[in-house]
Design brief:
The protein is an alpha+beta fold and 439 residues long. Helix content is 54%, strand content 17%.
Amino acid sequence: MIADNEGRRRIIYCVGEERSLREVLSEAEVAPLLSAAAKAGLPGVHVADGEGNVLWGAAGNAAAGKRTAARTVRLEGEPAGKVILRTGTPPGGTEDALLSLIADALATMAHNNLKRMLTTEMHTEVVNRSYEELLETNRKLSASEQRYRELAESLEIKVRERTQELARAMTRLVQQEKMASVGQLAAGVAHEINNPLAFVTSNIHTLKKYTSRFLDMLGRYERVCEQGGVAQQDRDGLRKHREALRIDAIAPDAGDLIRQTLEGTERVRKIVADLKGFSHIDEEGEGPADLNREIERTLSVMTQEIPPGARIVREFSPVPVITCRPGLFCQMFLNLLRNAFQARREGLCVAIRTGVSEDRIRLSFADNGPGIPPDRRARIFEPFYTTREVGKGKGMGLTVAYDIVTSHGGTIDVEDTPGGGATFVVKLPIQRGCHDQVR
């Protein structure tokens, strides 16, 4: 018996290994045989090993000097011990026959025990090997299962990341298609408005000149009438007619009406220009952009979305002109400003700040709304996630803004506004590598 590295006791049998008589026979097996021999008239018989050491029986019962009879006990054909008897009878008697019988019986018992031991040891070895093989197989299966589990988890993560990436790509495609549609619409609207606006503006300028001339002519008529040459009755009739027509009120107001109309047409022209500039329909691919100007354009086209009484604070600092897709950046500004305009309906204040910090352009859009709880900030840029009521938001505005900023190589984060509210901070590289180009 030996112990392996794990403390399990095992029987090792080596083919051809020599065994002693004590290893294959036990006293419980030999004692009954020696007892029977004593009853048969051999009281002094004992069993010794190959070196003469008494194993079983009493060697001192026989008288000294008598003849010693011995028979060899063989194990697997080799001498393993002896059965010894001290006797006074001559050789060839009954005692020698009994002694041979005992030796043969012990040899048979030893041979059978040896075969049983061999069988047991071989079975034990096979069982142990099978058990160890099963343990090794189980260990390999466990390791394989762990690898498959890790692979499945990794695959699940990759599938989830790929799904999110595809969703963001789809969002970008939808937004780009939407921007293209808006751009085409803006170009069409700008064209349709600019044509009538052009001749309305031209006509008003002409009307302004005509009105000035009419008023000048009326003044001359009035002076001629007052100087004489016209009967008093006619002058009184003209004066009454002038009062009835309220010429004195109309004359100064006509100039104001024409001036205000020209200001209105100029405002319409600027809105159309801003709408066309916001869509950047005439620009393909990337180009230089002044972000301060793009923010102003965006504010111009969002006039109707600004809550009544809201205050817009502009703290613009000069920023470098960067190469980007201006149309996408206007879309990003629109989404951030729309998010700020929806923060509250009354007493809203939106502060827009621009500047340069180290090698990046820093843009911030701060509102004094309820703010964003810390436990929701990690998800506000996820597609379709919204904190607004059902039907009030689709949860895509900030996602689109995030994709536009990150695809340009920038970052966008949300912070608390001092005094309450949320501030979205956008940081954009002034110079980009080729891997940061907006896709």
